Every structure is written in C-alpha cells, then in structure tokens.
Amino acid sequence: MKPASSIQVIDRAASLLDAIARAGGEASLKVLAADSGLHPSTAFRILGSLIANSYVERSPTGNYRLGIRLLQLAAKVGTHLDVRREAPPIMEWLRNEIGETVNLTLRDRDEVVYVERFTPSRMMRVEQVVGSRAPLHVTAVGKLLLGVEGEAGVRAYAERTRLPSYTRNTLAEVESLVREVREATARGWALDDEEAEMGVGCIGVLIRDNNGHAVAGLSISAPIDRRREEWIPLVVEAGRRISARLGHAPEGG
Q1: Average of pLDDT values for 1-19?
Q2: Gap between the Cα atoms of 100 and 221, Å rounded
Q3: 11 CA to centre of own chain
Q4: Is the distance from CB of 15 to CB of 33 less than 8 angstroms?
Q5: Which site from 28, 114, 206, 249 is most exposed, i.e. has the minimal number of CB atoms within 10 Å?
Q6: pLDDT, mean over the chain
Q7: CB-CB neighbours of 249 under 10 Å
Q8: What is the pLDDT of residues 188-214, one digit of tens each?
Q9: pLDDT for the residue numbered 103
Q10: Which residues contact 230 (CB under 8 A, 6 or more apart)?
Q11: Number of Cβ atoms within 10 Å of the Cβ of 183
C-alpha cells in the first residue's frame, strides 16, 4: 500500500520505470500498461513526459527503454559511494598528522552535508555531526564548490539564498563572496575564518573523480587559535590522494 502522502503521478511514473526494468530494460506500451495496471492512454502520457526528461527513450522498434538520465544519476550515486569507501583511510591519516577533526562533505543543492568524520582523542576539539548541513558560503569546501560554477553561479546562489549571516565574519555581501571564491578557486584550497561558528576555523579542498568533476569536499575543523597554515599542504595532499583513488589524474601529472 502506498503512503497517504504519496503523489499519484509520481507513483505511476515509478511503476512504469519498474515495469521496464522487470521486462529486461525494454518493453512495448501494451506490456507496460498491463504490468503497471495503468490504462494504455495514461501510461502513454506518462511515458511521454519521462521521454521529455530523458528518463525513458524509444528504441528503434518503437518499444520503451530506460533513458540516459537514469544512467547519469546512477553514475553520481556510484561516485558518492566510491568516495565514502575510498576516503576513510586518507582521512584517518590526515587526522593523525594534524590531531584535529577531519570531515568529508557532499553537496546537496545549496548546502554541504557532512557524511563522514574522523575526530582526535583530545578533549577540546570541533565536532561536526554526521548528517548535519551548512550553507555553501559559510564553509571552506562550499566556497570551492561555488567556484566550480564560476562567477555567474556564485551570483545566482547569492540571489537564491540572500547570503544569511551566521557570525560577524560571514561573507554576506555578494562582491566579497565572489572575490573570496575566485581567490580560493585559483589556489585550490579555501578557509572558513569563523564564518559559520565563532571560534572555529577550517581548511578545505575538493575531491575530484576520473572525469575531473568535483564530487566531494575534504576539510579539517579546529579551534581558530590552533589552526595552522602549515596544515594546508597536508590537506591538499589528502585531497589529492582521495581523488587519485577515484581515478583523477591532475593535468600535467
């Protein structure tokens, strides 16, 4: 039984995608309508919408088959699973080298999500809760993720979010954020100078896959009075090692 809050057209689209999969990846309208329990005209309309969005496509024989968009989404899920498998040994190494909290983050729309962490044994430390979120503009990794989209992307983000302030150091003016993102992108690492939380400083880098796409972020979080510039090469190296495990080869490397 579907939950009471389900949306009928989404349920029907999902049933058609499931029916295509059960049929081995390709089937006729008649087969899909019968399998999903939908009237052929209803199935035809929904399949047309799925085709328009590349979730389904027509085969040369006129049958319906799963579309390229599903493959693209599956590739992204696979990459994220790969990151979470490959990152921990390097994160542990970095934690041991600097003695501070190491975080792995993924982007979800206009936020970063903390999906893994390694914490030091010391009592005074920064705790980033797995599953917690933060806006892109207040985090080191978030600034680099914005940089991937270029200046137009930064300005669009600012327009959408209005750049809420979390501390007196938050970059709440678009020109300041554009400048900071440009500089961070050019050097390959970014800082959070008490912009999300007073007393906490971060250093962040991007993790890239075999196609060069930014798929995650790696950062260290520490009390601001303990953060050291000499950690930057270590964080950069850790990001490079994880990226290498995903098949990324820097240009000229």
Answers
A1: 76
A2: 7
A3: 26
A4: no
A5: 249
A6: 89
A7: 11
A8: 999 999 999 999 999 999 999 888 889
A9: 95
A10: none
A11: 12
pLDDT digits (tens, 9 = 90+) for 45-101: 999 999 999 899 998 889 999 887 786 676 666 666 688 888 999 999 999 999 999
Phi, psi values for residue 114, rounded to 5°: -80, 115
**What is the reported pLDDT for 3?**
45
The two three-digit tokens of residue 188, written as one number: 């390959």
Kindly report the three-state secondary structure assignment for every residue of the chain: CCCCCCCHHHHHHHHHHHHHHHCCCEECHHHHHHHHCCCHHHHHHHHHHHHHCCCEEECCCCCEEECHHHHHHHHHHHHHHHHHHHHHHHHHHHHHHHCCEEEEEEEECCEEEEEEEECCCCCCCCCCCCCCEEEHHHCHHHHHHHHHCHHHHHHHHHHHHCCCCCCCCCCCCHHHHHHHHHHHHHHCCEEEECCCCCCEEEEEEEEECCCCCEEEEEEEEEECCCCCHHHHHHHHHHHHHHHHHCCCCCCCC
Tokens 């979010």 correspond to 161
- Alpha carbon distance 10, 23 (integer Å): 20
